[in-house]
Amino acid sequence: MPGTLYVVATPLGNLEDVTLRAHRVLKEVAVIACEDTRRTRILLSHFGIHAPVTSYFEHNKLRKGARLIETLEHGQSVALVTDAGTPGISDPGFLLVKQAREAGVPVVPVPGPSAVVTALSAAGVPADRFVFDGFLPVKPGRRVHRLEALRGLEMTVVCYESPHRILAALDAIAQVFGEREIVVARELTKQFEEIVRGPAATLKARFEAGPVRGEFTLIIPA
Questions:
Q1: How many CB atoms lie within 10 A of CB 46?
Q2: Judging by DSSP bridges, how do beta strands 78-80 and 5-8 pair with one another?
Q3: Where would I find the H helices in the chain?
Q4: Cα 113 from Cα 85, distance rounded (Å)
Q5: Measured between alpha carbons, how far is 75 from 63 in angstroms, rounded to an integer?
Q6: Contact, 32 vs 55, CB < 8 A?
């Protein structure tokens, strides 16, 4: 019998958000596959979990994925985690899940934190219908083109952005959406958590005033 691939959500920042089930599964599996072993070891050390870890990220996903499938086919269970939140959302974890299903390996989700849902829950915008669009394109022209396509949707739009590109992203949103109020969330569940609302140009000026840190979740209501 093959082992089980557990898709385990981990805290966005506050370690108290780990679920009892995630804690148990991470203790019981043969190996934990993670984006950054250093970040995952901080979580594991905090909870006294000593399971072996192995890296699984964008640049080794094909080679490492094959090895993890072999582990699973030999009857050992594997936990897949991402740096923060739920695996498979804007990271390469979906490919390992796909490979496991194709190999007949059981896949079990262990739900928990997600930046998309966490930000939406505190944004005060309609979320009965929304689209998640991952990270906006890096190139300015493609970024504006993507936003123009999203502008036509009659639902809330959620996307991620890095601190290095947040100012450019807000500038593009202001260009496409004008004075429409948006919500920007950063450092969710962490000490310096911030959720602010206003026109993109206003928020850009706010973040220009000081160092920009933390991963961002952007919410654009319809």
A1: 11
A2: parallel
A3: 20-28, 37-46, 61-73, 93-102, 115-121, 140-151, 166-177, 200-208
A4: 5
A5: 20
A6: no
Which residue in 58, 56, 81 sits closest to 69, CA to CA?
Answer: 56
Q: Tell how strand 78-80 and strand 53-55 pair up.
A: unpaired
Task: Flag whether the pTM goes above 0.90.
Answer: yes
* Structural contact between residues 77 and 5, judged by C-beta atoms closer than 8 angstroms: yes
> Residue 35 in contact with residue 56, Cβ under 8 Å?
yes
Pair of tokens at residue 151:
């502008």
Q: Report the distance separating Cα 20 and Cα 51, nearest Å.
A: 16
Going from the first residue of the chain to its last (222 residues), give the mean pLDDT of each consecutive group of 10, the final group possibly shorter: 97 97 98 95 96 95 95 98 94 95 98 97 97 97 98 96 97 98 97 96 94 94 96
What DSSP string runs through 51-71?
--EEE--TTTHHHHHHHHHHH
Distance between CA 139 and CA 86 in Å, rounded? 27
- Tokens representing 209 are 């005033």
pLDDT of residue 14: 96
Residue 164 token pair: 């290095």
What single DSSP character describes residue 136? P
